Amino acid sequence: MTAATAEVLGPLLHRCAQGDEKALEQLYRLTSPQLFALVLRMLRRRDWAEEAMQECYVRIWQHAGDYSPAQSQPLTWMSRIVRNHCIDWLRKPQLEVPDADGTIVEAWADDAPGPLARLAQNQDSRRIAECLKRLEAIQRQVIALAFFDDLSHSEIAQRLSAPLGTVKSWCRRGLERLKGCLS
């Protein structure tokens, strides 16, 4: 690990701690070859190593705020997380049941998003909530009625005792402000 790479990884970890997903992508691109080699060497199975790598980067993302440049180099810190995770992985019982006809896999199949996707959804939800707070109260109320209660503009106008055109304007202006805030 060169000093220049350490100078790049430290700020990336700091940006990860602030929730910057692009920083995580860059961090992954720069460090995954070395860390995957470590995981593969420790676990000795490619399928386990691939799964463990995903979990390791989720842990790195979650604990990026704990990184201290005064205590270690960035890759050393990340390697310690990976090493500890691999040790935990090897300690847990690996119960493998043969599944010749695929019934077990089908029973456990899940279309739910993975850990990184859930993390991204959580962050998107926080961003949307923050942007909604910045809207005027009436715009927030109209958007909530339209999207969360699934009401039409006329139903909202009736519920708020407001003219239909006014409700449409509130909704349009609120959505424009939301779009500006989110972009």
TrEMBL record:
<feature type="domain" description="RNA polymerase sigma-70 region 2">
    <location>
        <begin position="27"/>
        <end position="92"/>
    </location>
</feature>
<dbReference type="GO" id="GO:0016987">
    <property type="term" value="F:sigma factor activity"/>
</dbReference>
<keyword id="KW-0805">Transcription regulation</keyword>
<feature type="domain" description="RNA polymerase sigma factor 70 region 4 type 2">
    <location>
        <begin position="126"/>
        <end position="178"/>
    </location>
</feature>
<dbReference type="InterPro" id="IPR013249">
    <property type="entry name" value="RNA_pol_sigma70_r4_t2"/>
</dbReference>
<dbReference type="InterPro" id="IPR013324">
    <property type="entry name" value="RNA_pol_sigma_r3/r4-like"/>
</dbReference>
<dbReference type="InterPro" id="IPR013325">
    <property type="entry name" value="RNA_pol_sigma_r2"/>
</dbReference>
<dbReference type="GO" id="GO:0003677">
    <property type="term" value="F:DNA binding"/>
</dbReference>
<comment type="similarity">
    <text>Belongs to the sigma-70 factor family. ECF subfamily.</text>
</comment>
<dbReference type="InterPro" id="IPR036388">
    <property type="entry name" value="WH-like_DNA-bd_sf"/>
</dbReference>
<keyword id="KW-0804">Transcription</keyword>
<dbReference type="InterPro" id="IPR014284">
    <property type="entry name" value="RNA_pol_sigma-70_dom"/>
</dbReference>
<keyword id="KW-0731">Sigma factor</keyword>
<dbReference type="Pfam" id="PF04542">
    <property type="entry name" value="Sigma70_r2"/>
</dbReference>
<dbReference type="Pfam" id="PF08281">
    <property type="entry name" value="Sigma70_r4_2"/>
</dbReference>
<dbReference type="InterPro" id="IPR007627">
    <property type="entry name" value="RNA_pol_sigma70_r2"/>
</dbReference>
<dbReference type="InterPro" id="IPR039425">
    <property type="entry name" value="RNA_pol_sigma-70-like"/>
</dbReference>
<protein>
    <submittedName>
        <fullName>RNA polymerase sigma-70 factor (ECF subfamily)</fullName>
    </submittedName>
</protein>
<dbReference type="GO" id="GO:0006352">
    <property type="term" value="P:DNA-templated transcription initiation"/>
</dbReference>
